[in-house]
Amino acid sequence: MKIFYADMRAKIKLNLFNKLEQMLERPEIKQAIPLKDALVAVKIHFGEDGNLSYIHPRLVRCVADWLKSQAAQPFLTDSNSLYVGSRSDAVRHLRTAYKNGFGYEMQGIPAIIADGLRGLNVRQVEIGLKHFSTVDLGAEAAQAQAMVCLTHFKAHELTGIGGAIKNVGMGLAARSGKLAIHSTVTPYMDEKCEACGQCIVYCPGEAITLGGPGGQAQIEAGKCLGCGQCVISCPGHHTHIRWDETVQNVQEKICELAYGLLVKLKMPAIYVNFVSNVTPECDCYGHSDAPIVPDVGILVGTDPVAIDQASADLVNAQPGIKGTALPGAYEPGEDKFKAIYPQIDWTQQLSYGEQIGLGRRQYELVKLV
After folding, report:
1. Sign of CA dihedral 273, 276, 282, 286
2. Superfamily for 2-181+245-367?
3. What is the 3-state secondary structure (H, E, C) of 255-319?
4. 220 alpha-carbon distance from chain centroid
5. CATH hierarchy code of domain 185-240
6. Nearest-10 Cα torsion for 284, 290, 292, 294
7. What single DSSP character describes residue 154?
């Protein structure tokens, strides 16, 4: 599998936008998805409020302009977050996107939240794999005719690396899909619950009653649909997710969500990994830590497993930057991700993704000259 690669060097007649366009114009890339009149989901993480490590909006504009030049009908998309934050519903999510430089005025294409106003717009897909018999995807993204997945490649505190697989599997899961990835049991209300009943209003499974100690709300596990509405609707933030899933299972579950979209729904896709500003944590935080290695470049391919493997290999080939969150592994060739998160085997998502048919770990790196 060919993965096209451009470093961060630029000249008067060859800037980063030119390089990105040249890679997108390669026949192996351009012919991978339908373009003329196709509704193309441009998967992007809009960044949490306070975070600065997301992909530069001008680079996203470059991709949007290229798609429009091919007569495609692109739109920016991401699904609502599971946790309470600046992207937990479509209103807050879009407001954060605009604040961070994403939307029609910036990229010239609309932004559509993949799972709707409150995360209930779901496309359920049968997959019959190890962890899930069905998976819940954001319906708006699942209805697209093709996808261009734009990923800020980085380290990640739960999966070791945050690449294209995670951007699709976690990023396009509906809120119920996200909850199923992270937790094996229902959410719970803490002792500070004010018994306001707001969670009851938004519970589609009628699983919540005010029958707990002191009159607090409580969830009947047998009726819980796992949609996560109680977490988001609680005005006092007294409803909590039980983050009880193992690291390996989380990685495998993410692969299975991606499988639902890419394999079962046969979504044709192009993947663009921006391996720059390689931070030690997810862009879901309201802050950005310093990058752990020098900027690497931009990778483009049609295989999510191969492009993540290539991205990780290129990061590990860099010298580590001292004085950052990187505690060691400063020499080129040492595993930076393992140094930051020694308890996480980041290769599990790649091996499982290959096992279930998401792609291949083997790749040929073709550098743009």
Report:
1. negative
2. LarA, N-terminal domain (3.40.50.11440)
3. HHHHHHHHHHCCCCEEEEEEECCCCCCCCCCCCCCCCCCCCCEEEEECCHHHHHHHHHHHHHCCC
4. 31
5. 3.30.70.20
6. 110
7. E
Residues in the chain: 369
How far apart (Å, rounded) are the C-alpha atoms in residues 69 and 306?
A: 27
Beta bridge partners of 188: 240
Averaged over successive runs of 10 residues, the pLDDT of the chain (369 residues) comes to 96 94 97 97 96 96 98 98 88 97 97 96 98 98 98 96 98 94 84 88 86 82 81 85 86 98 98 98 91 98 98 98 97 98 96 98 95
Query: Residue 39 belongs to what H/E stretch?
Result: strand 39-43
Residue that is written with structure tokens 């991709």 in the block: 63
158 within 8 A of 245, measured Cβ to Cβ: no
Task: Measure CA 331 to chain center.
Answer: 29
203 token code pair = 């519970």
Q: Apex CA 136: angle with CA 175 and CA 216, to 5°?
A: 40
Question: Which of 140, 162, 152 is closest to 41 using CA atoms?
Answer: 140
Judge whether 83 and 178 are in contact, CB under 8 Å.
Answer: no
CB 114 within 8 A of CB 167: no
Beta-bridge mates of residue 192:
none
Q: Where are the domains of the chain?
A: 2-181+245-367, 185-240
- Cβ-contact 364, 4 below 8 angstroms: no
Round to whole Å and give the CA distance between 151 and 41. Answer: 13
Write the DSSP symbol of residue 56. Answer: P
